[in-house]
Amino acid sequence: MSRLSTICKYPVQIAARNTTIVEAARKMREAHAGALVVVEKPSRSPKPVGIVTDRDIVVAIVALDLDPDIFLLDDLLNRPLVTAKGDMSCREGLALMNAKGIRRLPVVNKAGGLIGIVALDDLIAEMARDLKQVADVIEREITKELELRPARIRARKAHVAKSRYA
Q: Average pLDDT for consecutive 10-residue bins of the chain (166 residues)?
């Protein structure tokens, strides 16, 4: 199975802590993204401090009829951010997501800089590719077996026939 660094999506949609909810929602809409990784300050190798999803905005702000112009992304960061190192296997990433109950996993380098993001959908697609390879091996093995079997059977029948009449 692949490493997270090979399947993570980049560039990642990021925003600073002091971004308003309205600005964040607009950015998500423009990028067709369901989440923003919140960073201390945007830079070339930003350090993630949180993640805010479109669902977070709906549940925490819109559903409570709060003014999205006065709330910041920082106001929605209510739990520690879970990240994964790029050299982690996809299986380990999936186990981490399962243990923490999350669907998106920011991927960081050794220095903690953001290098990408992996969603549960990305891991499902990767596992489907692996299963396709397994299915291909089985199909190829069956094809080879069927190609070889008639020749072996004919040779065995001929040998048996010769031994009966010899």
A: 90 95 97 94 87 95 94 92 95 95 95 94 90 86 76 63 60
DSSP 115-158: EEEEEHHHHHHHHHHHHHHHHHHHHHHHHHHHHHHHHHHHHHHH
- Alpha carbon 148 to its chain centroid, in Å, reads 41
CB distance 48 to 83 below 8 Å: yes
pTM of the complete model: 0.77
d(CA 57, CA 21): 7
Measuring CA to CA, which residue among 116, 110, 83, 131 is closest to residue 92? 83
- Residue 49: φ, ψ to 5°: -120, -10
Distance CA 144, CA 67 (A): 66
What separation in angstroms does the CA of 64 have from each of 61, 73, 100, 144, 164? 5, 16, 26, 63, 90
Question: Cα–Cα distance between 140 and 78 in angstroms, integer?
Answer: 51
Sheet holding 14-16, edge to edge: 14-16, 35-39, 48-53
Task: Give the residue from 5, 23, 18 showing the smallest Cα distance to 122.
Answer: 5
**Would you say 54 and 34 are in contact if contact means Cβ atoms under 8 Å apart?**
yes
Sort residue 112 into left (φ over 0), alpha (ψ -120 to 50) or beta.
Answer: left
